[in-house]
Design brief:
Blueprint (H helix, E strand, L loop, with lengths): L5 E2 L13 E4 L2 E4 L5 H30 L6 H24 L2 H61 L4 H14 E3 L5 E3 L12 H8 L37 H10 L1 H11 L21
Antiparallel strand pairs: 1-3, 2-3, 4-5
Length: 287
């Protein structure tokens, strides 16, 4: 009969042989022969050590998973790079102010990195500004055309037919009107004799007192005002008959074009540009 070195339970031990076995870690190990008991204990100890080693291995594997793709070789390379950087830091500290040197190095690197971007941004900004300028010019031209059409239509509707008067009305409206937030053309604030917020029809009604010649049926060719003309209420403050320095100054400030026409009609010498807005003296009258 052959005996096993160990049995899992006492029932498995052959009859009459149980006194040869000793229970070790839940198993019955053969211990009757001198020296065998020690070997069995060593075997059990080895099993326990192997189990513990497997537990430790499993724990280490989990810890190594945190390093991702890094291997011992890459970790060693990183440690080497760290040591080199620490050596450079030590060198810089020995040469002077570390913070200043680091700031200088960072600034240089940033300049090399951002310089191309800054040039590109400058070019794009210049291109954008030019496009905005072109758009603004086009909008101004379009808006001026809309105002001209609005004034021409309102003037024709009110009875202004002379092309010269229509042109004069459009020119004067360009100085008197502005566009509000809703896109409507209204008279601006600060225009002498004109209330702010007026529409084209109301404005023409107010201007009619100052420019009645626009509505004249038979307007002489080349005549827009002067001595005895209905323009400016029939008076010409530059003429010998109606000469008035105060009125000259008012008209020169509020309507320079009308002032020029009245001076020309009265034969008055046109003042130099620097005094063209407010007459400071009486000019010669053509006999």
């Amino acid at each position: 009969m052959e005996l096993e070195l160990s049995y899992e339970s006492a029932e498995n031990i052959p009859e009459g042989m149980s006194n040869l076995y000793t229970e070790v870690d839940g198993a019955f190990v053969f211990t009757a022969i001198p020296g065998v008991g020690t070997a069995a204990e060593d075997l059990a100890a080895t099993k326990r050590a192997l189990a513990n080693a497997r537990k430790v291995e499993g724990k280490q594997k989990k810890e190594l998973e945190a390093f991702g793709e890094h291997t011992p070789a890459t970790i060693q390379a990183l440690e080497h790079e760290r040591d080199e950087l620490l050596a450079k830091v030590d060198t810089l500290q020995g040469e002077g102010d570390l913070d200043e040197k680091v700031a200088t190095l960072v600034e240089k690197k940033l300049k090399r990195t951002t310089a191309p971007l800054e040039r590109q941004i400058a070019e794009l900004t210049a291109e954008r500004d030019e496009l905005n300028r072109q758009v603004s010019t086009l909008e101004t031209t379009i808006n001026q055309g809309k105002l001209d059409d609005l004034i021409s239509g309102a003037a024709l509707k009110s009875g202004v037919k002379d092309p010269g008067a229509l042109e004069d009305a459009r020119s004067l409206a360009a100085r008197h009107f502005e566009m509000d937030e809703e896109g409507n053309w209204i008279t601006r604030d600060g225009v002498s004799g004109i209330d702010p917020g007026m529409d084209a029809e109301s404005w023409l009604g107010a201007v009619k007192k100052m420019r009645p010649l626009w509505w004249a049926e038979n307007k002489p060719a080349g005549s827009r005002g002067g001595e005895g003309s209905p323009e400016n209420g029939g008076k010409n403050p530059w003429s010998a008959k109606d000469f008035n320095l105060t009125e000259q100054g008012r008209i020169a400030q509020t309507d320079p074009e009308l002032a020029q026409r009245l001076m020309a009609s009265a034969g008055t010498v046109t003042p130099p540009p620097e005094t063209n807005t407010i007459p400071k003296q009486r000019y010669a009258i053509r006999e």
